[in-house]
Amino acid sequence: MSAPVYLTKEGLNKLEDELRHLKTKGRAEIAEKIAYARSHGDLSENADYDAAKHEQELLEMRISKIESTLNRTQVIDPKEFPEGKVYILSNVKLRNKKNNSEITYTLVSEEEADFMSAKLAVNSPLGKALLGKATGETVSAKVPAGIIEYEILDIWK
Predict the structure, then answer these.
(1) What is the pLDDT of residue 37?
(2) Which of 26, 38, 58, 94 is the most exposed place for a label (fewest CB within 10 A)?
(3) Considering the entire predicted model, what is its pTM?
(4) How far is CA 38 from CA 12, 25, 34, 48, 131, in A?
């Protein structure tokens, strides 16, 4: 069996909503596109038909991926983890040791990661470096731009 997927209740609900949408509206929309493309005759040279079938394949792959994720999901609550150390669902305020800029991240599972929302995957280089650390500690993470050092300024749930 594959490794468990840790999600918040919010993340679980989001995936369930996406799955419901894809299985109902998503499939119906693709079926309409395929039917429309079929109505244009010869399928061997029908680009619209090929595109719709490809879109259907991608949709079914996404449905399968979500179902697999949901079958392995374990819902977690930040209250389950001890105070004072960085764990999944921790909010962490960091200071870049090179330029003194500050940034705050929430550590989440890979499935919930969203850089634009400052949700950092625990399995990312920085996420891995932060896990188990406490306020005042310095961590290093190898990123495409090189090695970055951060000081942990604050941790909260």
Answers:
(1) 86
(2) 58
(3) 0.71
(4) 37, 20, 6, 9, 54
What percentage of the chain exceeds 90 in pLDDT? 66
6-61, pLDDT tens digit by residue? Answer: 888 888 999 999 999 999 999 999 999 999 888 887 777 788 888 999 999 999 99
Domain boundary assignment for the chain: 5-75, 78-156
Whether domain 5-75 has CATH 3.40.50.720: the reply is: no
